[in-house]
Structures are given as structure tokens and as C-alpha cells.
Amino acid sequence: MANSSRVGNVQTVLGLICGDELGTTLPHEHLLVDLSCAFALPAAASQRGRAYEPVGIENLGWLRYHSFENLDNLRLLDEREAIDEALLFKMAGGNSIVDCTINGVGRDPEGLARIARSTGLNIIMGSGYYTAPSHPPELAAKSEDEVFAEIVRDIEIGVGDSGVKAGIVGEIGCSWPLEDNERKVLRAAARAQQHTGACLSIHPGRNRAAPFEIVDIISAAGADLSRVIMCHIDVRLRTPEERLRLARTGCYLEYDVFGWEGHFPSYWTADDYMDIPNDTQRIYEILALMEAGHLEQILVSHDICRKSTRVRYGGWGFPHILNYVVPMMRQRGFDQEQIDTILIENPKRILGFA
Q1: CA–centroid distance for 299 within its chain
Q2: CA 204/CA 333 separation, integer angstroms
């Protein structure tokens, strides 16, 4: 069961801290990540040359609707650049970042520790496996018990020989439909949540039914739903009824792609067309959830995982919520206590060990 020294505290890559030290927190970001597994070669011959271009001013307009069709866009590998981008969040008043990069997409425990030391930010690292296209071949041969033990070890001892410990389970990756290995990892992650007291963060497949199927699976495996973050709500559940249905399970609803709007590419959502709302729409949806009594289940972030979303490349970056979204929230009726609940108190509650 959970180590008593961790209960109520948050485990960063530099060690345990008191939850009160978290401050303003982004609960779903990527400082270093390699999402090559999500790369999709453009269908049109005339655009295939753009697939291997470096990200720059010439292709930023194209990348707005083709984010995953350029390989360079999916690789955030420069530690110095990550430090510079994270410092923009600190300059805006931010304190803590959860890096959700896990097995299969380039998790870098020692790199995150160096970024934490360089910036003075609290950085929390995840554990587990991302979606099936990123799975290493050896995962298929691992049992659920072995995956469970691996996640527990990441949290209690550290990743590999690094000594750097994970602070959450996840973001556990799920496709639509779920693959067998993803089901196995989900069950192992639910058990690890209970064993360690860490929260469980989940990337649901790109279908409106995905979050509800996942809730059924992890509930059967023993997960505490009040300690579960369902990610990407703003690009999964597009009706008030669906959002309220999920909120009633007790899960945290994470609006975590602030800054991004438009639509998913058709090759991802052929069976379930989904739009991506703009930030104003997100704010009104959060207001509706608050009015229904779910303020303490709301989290907000950006999921910065592509070069085109970073400030250096003309994107909105880590300071976007503090610099632009919070003022919009105030204009639309949020008081400071409600804003602090979303940005400070809710992350403190869910990221602290139970």
C-alpha cells in the first residue's frame, strides 16, 4: 500500500514536496517527447515533401491542420529549448508542470531532472505505456503482473538506474478500439494506482465512447475513480450530457489542449467525427460543469507535444493559460477563488499521494 511518507505529498523528479509547494500547475504537458509513432505520411504526393521539412515559418500555416504529418513537428528533443519554453511559464507566474511522457515516446528521467534544476520548476514525471503504435515489442510478452510491478518500481524506486521517481501513473495511452496490450496496461495501471496511492491519468481513444469503456475496465480492476484524470475531454466529449455523465463517475475532467482549435484529421476519426473547440468554448463548457457542481473535478492544461505549439515556433506555449485564458475567464464570470481552485487546489489534491 501507499508509503506513509508520501501521503499528502507530491513526488517530483527531484523528490517529495509538500502539496502546498505546487502552486499554479499544468497537469498535462510534454517537455521532452518523441511522438514519431503518431506520424502519418500525407496522402497527396504534392504534400509528401513537407513531411520531412524542418518546422519553420514557411510551413506553420500548413501545420495548423497537418500537425501529425510532419516528422520534425513531433520531436521535442532539445533540452535547452525545453528549458527556455518552461521558463516562459515561470515568468508568467507558473510553478509546476506534469510531464506526461512515458514508455514508448521517449521518457527522459534525467533530462527532466536537469530541466527542473535549471528552471526551479516542480516537474512531475509519469509511468506506464502510451498507445499501441508506440509499444516496444517486448510488452506483448509481459504479463499484467509484470507491467504492474514495473509501474510500482518507477514510483517507489525510480526509473531504471536513474534514481528519478515517477509521481503519477500515466498518461496511460488508449486507442479506439482498444488493443489487447492496452487493456492489459490499463488493468495494471489501475492496480498500481491503488498500491502506490498515486493518481491515474488516462489518454482515451479518439471516440466519444472511449472514456466510458475505460471507466468500466479500470473500475473492474479496482481503481478509485475519484483519483483518475480523464485527459483530452475538450477533444473527446462534445456534448453537455456526455461531460456530465463522466463527471458523475467522480473522475477529474481535464481540458488539456487549450490553444488548439479546428478538427482531428479524418484518418483518426473516421467513425466518430469530432471538432476541436476554441478557448472561449472551453471556458463556457467549464462554467456549465461548475454550475452543475463539478468545479473540484476540473483541470486545465495545453498538452504541448508538437513544435508548432511552442512559442519558439509561433505557437502559444506553456504560458498561454496564464497570459490569455485566465483573463478571459475573469471576463466571463469566474472569480479568483474559482480560478485558484482549477489552477492550484485541484492539481494539489489529485497529485498528492493518497
Answers
A1: 11
A2: 31
User: Is 97 contained in some domain?
Assistant: yes
Note whether 48 and 60 are within 8 A (CB): no
153-194 pLDDT, tens digit per residue, is 999 999 999 999 999 999 999 999 999 999 999 999 999 999
Whole-number Å distance between alpha carbons of 63 and 299: 27
d(CA 55, CA 29): 20
H helices within the chain, ranges in order?
A: 60-63, 79-91, 109-119, 144-156, 180-196, 210-220, 240-247, 279-291, 320, 326-331, 336-340, 346-351
Question: Cα(first)–Cα(last) distance of the chain, in Å?
Answer: 10
Say whether the peptide bond before residue 296 is cis (omega within 30 degrees of 0): no
* Rg over CA atoms, the chain: 19
pTM: 0.97
Number of domains composing the chain? 1
| Residue 270 CA from chain centroid, whole number | 24
In a domain, 225, yes or no: yes
Q: How far apart are the C-alpha atoms of 307 and 26, rounded to whole Å?
A: 18
Q: What is the pLDDT of residues 49-65, one digit of tens each?
A: 999 999 999 999 999 98
CATH code, domain carrying 334: 3.20.20.140
Look up the domain containing 244 and give its range.
9-31+80-351
Q: Which three cell numbers stand for residue 278?
A: 476554441
Q: Quote the CA–CA distance of 45 and 191 in Å, as a whole number.
A: 47
Q: Is residue 51 one of the residues assigned to a domain? A: no
Q: What is the mean pLDDT of residues 136-143?
A: 97
Closest-CA residue to 299 (of 203, 223, 206, 229): 229
Q: Please, which pLDDT band fits residue 274 given cuts at 50, 70 and 90?
A: confident
Nine-digit cell string for 102: 512515458
Numbers of helices and strands, H then E, in the chain: 12, 14
Does residue 93 lie within any of the structural domains? Answer: yes
